[in-house]
């Protein structure tokens, strides 16, 4: 399958979409057949004048000749809020499909998928079913899925990750219905390769220092000092802290894998103070009625701390995990150990931190300085 890349550009003060592909007469002639296509004078590249609908038009036109369309470099804002009259109005699910989605949810739960994944697949599949009702489709075909992908995802400006989740959810749903998903051969967008936001050690220190609530301070310190995902931190039980070996036991992490990560001596002192004050019974961090502390509460804690600390970066709870890994790498820790601590299945995932560490970028001599 040939790839066509759409990238933003400018010509004579107007925004345009450049259409780039390896030399191919079939694609070239097909693109020229689209109304409004022009050639940029100084390099000969084909382009289309930018508008709220131009991406969707290009995508649909190129899919007719089975091209993979990479639009990941285009700015997301124009597609997040398309004009209202272009938005799809989907009908509600009927009683039959409502009950079927309940059975689908149980089927996913029986496969022991995480609650977050189950909710995501069910809700995205609900959109697909509502779309099929809108189109009065009597069966689920590849054409219907591709039409849903174009009209509901591409034209509505949904993200690449949203598109992949939709495809995953639909394939699970069709498997649930004992349909052959292999015959669909669904085209997936290329995953965006974005570098993670990293906080410096000073920023992490400041972020934790501005928090006066002991529980909130301990939670954020734990996520950073152990490189934990938020779900892993909130699932921790009191018994998972091994202060003798200075390790934290992560049970049932991503991919249902167990692992150990570091227990910081400085954090242990803070944790002991927290334990004496709050006396958690089962979960290390408990909300009301001794239940697990919620993700939304943890996110609110972080947002407030970021504002207090005056940090201008776009920070999420996962940023603390990214920062932990990057700081380990900057300290000279072997990347294989970092992979183990983070619970990554592949070293390729961990290698992203080599692109953001100060040691690998800021300390490289620029040849221009040596002229």
UniProtKB/TrEMBL annotation:
What region holds the Tyr recombinase domain?
194-366
* Keywords linked to the UniProt accession: DNA recombination, DNA-binding
Provide an example Pfam family for this protein.
Answer: Phage_integrase
Q: Which GO terms describe its molecular function?
A: DNA binding
Q: Which PROSITE patterns match?
A: TYR_RECOMBINASE (PS51898)
Tell me the Gene Ontology biological-process terms attached to this UniProt entry: DNA integration; DNA recombination
What the entry lists under InterPro entries is as follows: DNA_brk_join_enz, Integrase-like_cat_sf, Integrase_catalytic, Integrase_recombinase_N, Tyrosine_recombinase_XerCD
- CDD domains from the entry? INT_IntI_C (cd01193)
Q: What is this protein called?
A: Tyrosine-type recombinase/integrase
């Amino acid at each position: 399958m040939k790839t066509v890349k759409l990238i933003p550009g400018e010509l004579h003060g107007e925004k345009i979409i450049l259409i780039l592909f390896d030399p191919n007469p079939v694609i070239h002639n097909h693109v020229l057949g689209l109304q409004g296509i022009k050639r940029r004078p100084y390099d000969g590249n084909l382009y289309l004048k930018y508008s709220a609908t131009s991406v969707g038009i290009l995508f649909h036109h190129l899919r007719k000749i089975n091209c993979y369309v990479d639009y990941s470099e285009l700015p997301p804002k124009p597609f997040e809020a398309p004009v209202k009259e272009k938005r799809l109005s989907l009908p509600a699910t009927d009683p039959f499909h409502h009950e079927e989605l309940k059975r689908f949810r149980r089927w996913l739960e029986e496969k022991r998928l995480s609650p977050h994944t189950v909710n995501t697949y069910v809700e995205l599949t609900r959109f697909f079913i509502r779309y099929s009702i809108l189109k009065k489709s009597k069966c689920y075909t590849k054409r219907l899925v591709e039409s849903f992908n174009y009209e509901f995802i591409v034209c509505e400006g949904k993200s690449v990750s949203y598109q992949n989740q939709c495809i995953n959810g639909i394939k699970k749903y069709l498997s649930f219905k004992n349909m052959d998903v292999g015959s669909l051969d669904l085209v997936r967008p290329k995953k965006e390769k974005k570098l993670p936001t990293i906080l410096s050690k000073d920023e992490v220190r400041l972020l934790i220092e501005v928090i006066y609530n002991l529980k909130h301070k301990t939670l954020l310190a734990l996520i950073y000092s152990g490189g934990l995902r938020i779900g892993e931190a909130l699932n921790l039980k009191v018994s998972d802290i091994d202060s003798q070996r200075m390790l934290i036991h992560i049970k049932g992490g991503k991919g249902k894998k167990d692992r150990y990560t570091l227990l910081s001596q400085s954090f242990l002192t803070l944790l002991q103070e927290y334990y004496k004050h709050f006396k958690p019974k089962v979960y290390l961090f408990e909300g009301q009625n001794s239940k697990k502390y919620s993700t939304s509460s943890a996110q609110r804690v972080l947002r407030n701390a970021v504002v207090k600390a005056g940090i201008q970066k776009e920070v999420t709870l996962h940023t603390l995990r990214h920062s932990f890994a990057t700081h380990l790498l900057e300290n000279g820790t072997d990347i294989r150990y970092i992979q183990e601590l983070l619970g990554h299945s592949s070293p390729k995932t961990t290698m992203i931190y080599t692109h953001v560490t100060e040691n690998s970028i800021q300390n490289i001599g620029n040849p221009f300085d040596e002229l």
